Amino acid sequence: MTPAVEVEPKLASPGTPQLKRVLGRRDLVLLFVVAVVNLNVVPSVAANGGVTIWLWLLALVFFFWPQGIAVIELGGRYPGEGGVYLWTKKFFGDFHGFLSGWCYWTNNVFYIPTVLLYLVGVALYVGGDRTKALADDPSVTFPAALAALVVLVVLNVIGVGVGKWVNNLGGIGTFTIAAVLIVLGIVTFATHGSALSASDFRVNGADWRIISTFGTMCFGLVGLELASVMGDEIRDPQKTLPPAVALGGVASGVLYIGASLTLLLAVPKSSIGVLQGVVEAIGNMATQVGAKWIIAPLAVVLSISIAGIASAWLSGSARIPFVAGLDRYLPSALGKLHPCTATPYVALIAHGFFSAIFLALSFAKGASVKEAFTILLALAVVLQLVPFLYVYAALIKLALRHGAADGHYSKPVLMVSGLSGLITTALGMVVAFVPPTSASAWKFDGKMAFGTLFFLGLGGFFYFVYGRRRAPTVATQI
């Protein structure tokens, strides 16, 4: 069987400034930690009690481990700007490639506002009782989150060499906060005990409102693929990427389990706040062990960590409309690089603009901050997991391909990883539609169904409208 000819996508036309390779192994490890370990996900998960620790373990084994296999295998075989967009396009054709990239990008249009809301909530905690109550006031949280978004867009337009330091500081901040949280939890448990008992970890039947958090967990564990989305900005990607994925993946899993367990030990599940849960846990434990002075400094560090999360996802996901603009699936202006900084500045500004719009819409009709956070996060979960259906299906297709294995992993490993990831991803998407306890089922599912279908349909519209303007190309089937 003669393999089909593969056509690599052009990243820039002659005379266009090229993307700069500025990301090394340390940058990637910190990028993975800051992108994967999103501590704002932990409170909404931990609020469901000790049984969620078992769900974390299931998500790590059946979703996160296959994700690492996929990133190393596909990133090594097909390096280049675009990551999931590029891989899906090669295995399943242009339309599916575009749809995968579209969902990856648009989910971040929603997700970044949730991160910014969390950033504002934690930053307000620094001021103590006088300011932390303002986290529930939209007239304060909206302009503050919008200002943070503008700053992050500007920093990333200036260049990856500058923007990566926001990501790196965020990664260091994530390590610091998670480590302090775990240490405080151990000290508090040793000196004061905990209201958490062994029975809290017992699984008593299937509570779908708790199982629904499994989708949020899978969503919280994505991020290893982010470096491959920026594949043309990594120094020696085939040597740099595999060890960085391994180190970043192990660190992320340990930090997630440790932070979740410590939060449960420190704060009763009924008292865990969605927007300030981690810093509340730190405050609770620090007060018990006589170290209340540490609360404000750690809230500042946590704010830096959250800013790094927002910067990483803004920077990485903006590369999708950049590549799609080069391919003429989206307006070609999105494929422009800044003549001085060699960054996809139009795509970054467009990303910031649409995130600002949805940040504003989330407060429409007097919605509370918590309600806005919940619906944006749930919709982001579904859209984010769509590309992973393609990624894991690509692993299965690769495992079934004839000929000797020429990648990092054997065919059985690729097949098991692909099947595990595909099934787990589909389950995570389904349970994301289960409404939280405080929400109306019909209202929640109605918004979720409308939002999902709207953005899938909008992606199809853009593909077929701009696809007609694109010159025919050789099929890129594998």
Give a written overview of the molecule.
The chain is an all-alpha fold. The chain is built from 19 helices and no strands. It has helices at 25-36, 41-46, 52-77, 84-92, 94-125, 129-132, 138-158, 160-192, 208-211, 213-220, 226-229, 237-266, 277-288, 295-317, 319-326, 345-361, 369-400, 411-431, 441-467. The longest helix has 33 residues, at 160-192. The protein is globular and about 65 Å long. 53% of the residues are buried. The model is unreliable at 1-17 and 471-478 (pLDDT under 50).
List keywords for this structure.
478 residues; mainly alpha; 19 helices; 69% helix; globular; disordered N terminus
Short description:
This protein is mainly alpha-helical. The chain is built from 19 helices and no strands.
DSSP E strands, number: 0
Could you tell me the radius of gyration in angstroms? Answer: 22 Å
Q: Strand content of the residues, in percent?
A: under 5%
- Alpha plus pi helix count: 19
**H and E order:** HHHHHHHHHHHHHHHHHHH
Round the mean pLDDT to the nearest integer and report it.
77
Largest sheet: none
